[in-house]
Amino acid sequence: MTGLSVRGKELWMNNEPIQLISGAIHYFRIVPEYWEDRLLKLKACGFNCVEIYIPWNLHEPKEGEFNFTGIANIEEFIRIAERLELYVIARPSPYICAEWEFGGLPSWLLADRNMRVRSYYEPYLEKVDNYYDVMLGKLKPLLYTNGGPIIAMQIENEYGSYGNDKRYLNYIKESMLKRDIDVLLFTSDGPTDLMLKGGAVENVLATVNFGSRPKESFAKLQEHFPNTPNIVMEYWNGWFDHWGEEHHQRDPQEAADTFEEMLKNGDSVNFYMFHGGTNFGFYNGANFSDKYEPTITSYDYDCPISETGELTPKFHAVREAIAKHKDIGELELPKPIAKINYGKVVMEESLNLFEVLDQISAPVQNTHPETMEKLGQDYGFVLYRTFLKGPLGKAALTIQEVRDRALVYVNNEYKGIIDRWDNKTVMIEVPKEGIQLDILVENMGRINYGPYMYDPKGITEGVRFERQFLFDWTIYSLPMDNLDKLSFQETNDHSLDKPTFYRGFFEAEEIGDTFIELPSWTKGVVFVNGFNLGRYWEVGPQETLYVPGPLLKQGKNEIVVFELHGTKKREIDLIDTHKLG
Which residues form the active site (predicted)? Predict the structure, then answer.
């Protein structure tokens, strides 16, 4: 078996021409129990390949500590694809973008304020090498050349959209080669002169990414690389959503018609995405064009397969396009997954954050309000506390470079928001007896694309009262990765002006997918049986959080909501319908 190779303008597999019809599915956005379901639907649509990004930050969450269990069990996902006779394209770039936190780069890189990512900077490359020693070692037995399903692997990711450091790109290439990665290597970039010139690597297959106008995009590829196969590594058939936007949707037939245009010409296509999934926990990324724009919890992407695994009209339109050109047989699907309405859950127990700080965080003292990364923290929240002596007249409290959204409290009383968008100051005054000043900062996702990726979180420069910088801080890290120490109690205090943990329970006789609706809540995070589902925010477009059935158990189930602004109605609804946009 010779594997995947390039012969002029054609791709060949084992001495025969092949047209790859591939779809992106991110194992890290799907509970493992549903991996096979999603891959079966990919195959049922007529696809012969699955493409996966590999997020470094998931697999090395702390430097030198690796994770390949549960949702991070990449080897199991690839073996399922192999069992279903699907080829695999792997993209361990080490940067992936993917609207994923920091583009897949681990946040601990930013503990070094001199760090330079995605370039020939030796301290960065040393970290990449340590990661590749482990990750590529895991992938090597799964290569097609070693009897596995992986037929191709990417060098970096859309690098021409970021830089032009050829020494760096060649270093990544050589890093793969010297670790015996002997399948076809490729790059992928946007179809412009700047991007293709910046991102291409000598003697490596170049591919392009686009959502429309394939004829023009492939013409630009051929202009730079004559006599190369036409491959779109990311055909954007849908799009992602930021908080505060409308849900993006694309006409299914138009997306299928654009695909069929490529199909008829023999072009190879990878759908980005075929099935998006969910940004569980705090793994959503963010973009920055003219302002900071964090991505929502849902990564539905308006795909052929919805966030919850349902076939969409786009699935059927795409399958019909393939069926015109290839024999894909009758549509055979896995058993449907039940969607269940469990009803209303009353959140009878609560604890406000200020009462339990010492239960869930060990404070540190510091002259300056350190960043999250300097504190050794990846995600979540940080609370900064200091004392001001009075009397001082009313003046503006300012946070220089808050990342990303801060709630300000004086003596535990809410005073306002300072955020990365519009709210830059809060007015406070200090009486003779002085005040306790608390600032709760939420990391809403590190930037995953573009020139502003250096995105440390928390208070990144300092806090000023009027013109005076404030020093001497007590700092509480709140990663929200273990809430077991919370001792809940029944209470009637709604804590409308304080960040509060609420807890409720419900019984489940049957297990199925469900959706959490929070109609009277403002902004926060939801945990089901200890699993962080992700963020909610009343600005939309997302109105429900998806709860995959495998997170539930027969009998008693726990729901904890960390609400930043309080609620007037301590109830949530578990319904059988996803509301997005």
Answer: 158 (proton donor), 234 (nucleophile)
